[in-house]
Each structure stands twice: as C-alpha cells, then as structure tokens.
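User: We ran a pulldown and think these components assemble together. Before we commit to crystallization trials, I'd like a predicted model of the whole complex to look at. Sequences follow.
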Amino acid sequence: MPADVWAVTLAVGARTHSSTKSGRVERVSGIQDPTRGRMAGQERRIDDTILIREAQRGNRAAFEELVRHYDQPVLRLALHLTGTEHDAQDVYQDAFLKAYKNIGSFRFECSFYTWIYRIVTNLCLDHLRRKTVRKEDAPVAKDASGGEYDLLDQVPDVRAGANPERDLMRRQLGARISGALEKLTPRERMVFELKHYHGLKLRTVGEILHTTEETAKNTLFRATQKLRGQLADMR
Amino acid sequence: MKCEWVRENITLHVYGELADDARHELEQHMARCADCAAALQAEREFHALLSQEQVAEPAPSLLTASRMRLQEALETAEQGGFWQRLALDPANWLRQVRFSPALASAILILGFAGGVGTSYKLVVHQPQTSSPSVAASPAEASITGIRSITQEPGTNQIDIKYDTVSTLETQGSMNDQRIQQLLLFAARNNYNSGVRMDSVDLLTQKPDVSQVREALVYALRYDTNPGVRLKALDGLGGFVKDDVRVRDVVLEALVNDSNPGVRTEALRLIEPVKADGSVRGVLMALAAKDQSTYIKSQARTMLAGLPEID
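Assistant: Here's a predicted model for the assembly, 545 residues in total across the polymer chains.
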C-alpha cells in the first residue's frame, strides 16, 4: 500500500537528510491541501524527483513507489506490443530491474518518463526483432496460464444490449488490424504504437527512440501508408 | 505542388502534429481543393478504423502479479555502485569532470604537485621501515637530483627538497617570445644535434634579433656538428657587410673550421667584403699557404680582382 511505503520513505528521509527535505516529502505524501489540484503536475514532478534521489541512495521503497507511477502504461504498452501476458510480464520485469540497477546513472537530463520508456521500448524492439527473425506467422496468443489470449477480451463491453454479431465483427476487425501491424518493421510499429495507441507527441517519441522528431514523422507516415495498403479493402 | 505537400502532411494533421502555420495553410487549401478535402476525409475515416482496435488496460490481476514478481526480484537485485557506473558510462563521468570547474582545477593542481621543485615531506614512523622506496616511488624517473636533506631537531620529520623534470609541450609562432627562448636554449644546450639543427634552422628566420644572432655566432664557433655550423653560417651571411663581429667569426670559420664545406661557404660569404683590410689579410695568408688547393686558388682569384694597395 503506497501510504505505508511512504511512511518508510519519510522515516529514512527524516533520519538521513535535512528537515526541509523531509518537510517536502511530507507535503507530497497525501496530506490534504485544497490548493494542490492546480499544481498536481508540478508536484508529481517534484514527487518523482525526490523518489528518484531516494532510489539513487538505495531506498528500495522509494523505487517501488516510482514503479507504481509508471508501471500501468508500461505494462499496457508491453502487452499490446508483445501480444502475450507472459512476454509483457517479462518486459515489465526486465525494464524495471534494469532501471533499478542503473538509476544511479540517471542524471535528470531527460524526464524519468522518457528514460523509463527508452528502456521499455528497447526491450520491446528486441522482442519484436526476435519475433521477426523467428518468422512467427500470427501465433495464437497465450496468457500466463497457457490459455488462449485475445486482446479484445480485455476490453470490457459496457454497452447496453451488446449483440454477438457486432462482437464477432469487432473481433474480425481486430484480427485484421493486428495482422497489419505485425507486418510493419519493429521501428515503424513502435512509432505507430506510441503515437496512435498511446497518444505521445512525436517529439517525445523521437526522444525515446533516440532520433529526431522529423525522423519520427517520416516513420509514422511510412507506417500509415503500409497499414492503408494492408487494410485497403476494409474502407 | 501544393496538393502533393498537403497529401504528405494529411497524416500529421490528423494526428495534430502539424505546426500552427502549416495547419493554417493546409486548412486554407482544403477550403479550395475538393480532392484534398476528400483525401482528408478518407484519412480521418482510416484513422477511426484503426482506432477501433483498442488497447486494453492490463487486468488488475496481471498488474498485481507483475508488481509482486518485481518486488521479489528487487530483494536480491543490487544497484550499480560508483565503480560500475564509471565503468559503464565513462563518457558521463568525463562530462561531469568537464562541467565541474572545482574538480578539474583540483586535478590540474594535483598534476602540478608532481611537477618541478616539489618539496616532499617524509614522515618516518619507524626507522627500519623508512625504506628508500618511499622516496623513490612517486616519480623515480623524473628526479634529477636531491637538493637538501634536513631533519628538524627533536622530531622525526625529515624534509627533502628534490628537483624533477617532466616533459612539457608548448606551441606558438616564431614571433612568440617563449618559442624564441626555447629555440635559443636548444641551439646552445641540446645534446641532440638533430634538435640543434632544427632550432638553428628556425632561428635563421630571425637574424635581426640580437640574441638570435648571438646564438648563431655561438653555433658557428662551438657547435660540434658541421651541418649545424653550416646552417648558422647561412643565417649570418646577410650581416657580413654590416656587422664586424659577424665578419670576424666568418673569417675565423674560414681559417680554422675543420670542415671544408664550412670553409668554402665562409669564403663565398666574404666575397662582397674582400676589399676590407682584415679580409684581405686573411685571403693573402690563405693564398700563400692553405692546405686546401681549392681554397688557395679561390683566395688567389679573389685577391687578383682587388685593386693594388700602395
């Protein structure tokens, strides 16, 4: 539970650092303040900075808290890119372990968001490349327990009176799109994924992939052209 | 052209990635061009089609399981320490040094500390362990001599003053004072004749400077290498007429130099001043009894061209 973790972090902070720092930690640790809403983004950043510094000093509780700030979108990205819960869990695990081991070399030259996404996208790209080399022809996705896995099963159908026919059509459409996405190169897939499904700015995508915004734009253009060609009959 | 540009940028427009001015231009064009407007509509429909494939949020159970697995792994994982960081990312470490003036200065000062004229204080804790290796360890190769060894009365402190040499490098043009000084030093003192040759060769570019001329005169008189003497002679050649000292030293070389090449060159150089009394005297002596037949005959020829003196 995050609040408990914070209590640990606070104790460590108060013991080893100045009172002003522990005061800041206290401020972001959940005490109600009506003016907080406006500055939520900024505070989150301060919050992260403190957590990163604590994690760099070897405070594992702080790192675990940091993980909680980012792990949901990371798992979501890994799940969509790898297609299986098992692989997604591996990417998640490898990414955060790598981050933990190397957090000492994080120098605040980019945001932690960009840094962690760099690690994750690199691992995902490796996964996609291996997959391309193996030439796996649209395998049946398996979940952690070995059962058949369908991404669309993960979407709760909250519409009233959902009918099976439309559901089937959605599944077919999903399968076609997934097939088309798999035909992209790993890098095209990654740019498209980050832009289209995760809504990142191309500037950020460029930073994450160690390239320019312009290159990211060109890659996105190429990816959409290919997808259009693949899905031409569906329009 | 315009339509082509629009088609290339429609995708970025749909994704909201066009710059404001480009977006304005594109929208203006859409209002006028039906084809491009249709293309934009098609792009939006395609975008909507792709968006029907939704990215599912990971199931809470999956997220929890992932977190627990990570927590377990973190218990045994170790963070990279300072040395690992240094080994993994030396560029980053160097960057830090570059941007830390205090650290950079400290390293510089430390470097100087090992340089010339270091006063080295050796604390003798136990007489039997005060081995010479301690004194010799820091820069044995660079120690040129021990100046003094003193022991402060009543203490076990020994004060040793010693000199060291270290190789330094400097760069600059011939007009640079420091460079000139080093060249002058090299011309007189270096044991390596190649270095003396190079320095004298460079100094001949600046014979106007009196110190340089002095060094060339020194080289012509005392340098053991005939090549260096020849170079110095070349540098002095222009001053035979105006500088009596130079004339004398050239005559000296003409009479006494052990190398025939140097003598021949000296003879050639004094040609313009052969009418001078001292030169004429030397020429007459050479013409009468020089060992070298070439010098003897040349001296005679030069004398023959001179008007008779009463």
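The first strand of chain B starts at residue 119 and ends at 123. That may be worth checking against your pulldown data before setting up trials.

User: Thanks, that helps.
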